[in-house]
TrEMBL record:
<protein>
    <submittedName>
        <fullName>Putative RNase H-like HicB family nuclease</fullName>
    </submittedName>
</protein>
<feature type="domain" description="HicB-like antitoxin of toxin-antitoxin system">
    <location>
        <begin position="6"/>
        <end position="68"/>
    </location>
</feature>
<dbReference type="InterPro" id="IPR035069">
    <property type="entry name" value="TTHA1013/TTHA0281-like"/>
</dbReference>
<dbReference type="InterPro" id="IPR031807">
    <property type="entry name" value="HicB-like"/>
</dbReference>
<dbReference type="Pfam" id="PF15919">
    <property type="entry name" value="HicB_lk_antitox"/>
</dbReference>
<dbReference type="InterPro" id="IPR051404">
    <property type="entry name" value="TA_system_antitoxin"/>
</dbReference>
Length: 73
């Protein structure tokens, strides 16, 4: 499975939350990460996706398919 097919939502974090950027994966409940830059947050989210899917598989849980394919203009 290609983890890059899961949409990742990135948004700035408040300074009181440590700054940087947060990233979450709407299709995978609780799957999130962060980073100093938007690119780092997305890269870390891909690692989180892999870990989320591995844990769900070990627990025998369903793994949702990606809800949409991302395109860039």
């Amino acid at each position: 499975m290609t983890y890059h097919k899961y949409p990742v939502v990135v948004s700035p974090l408040a300074d009181e939350d440590g700054g940087g950027f947060g990233a979450y994966v709407p299709d995978l409940p609780g799957c999130m990460s962060d980073g100093d830059t938007p690119e780092e947050a997305v890269h870390n989210a891909y690692d989180a996706i892999e870990a989320w899917i591995e844990a769900a598989s070990e627990l025998g849980r369903d793994i949702p398919a990606p809800s949409q394919k991302l395109t860039f203009a």
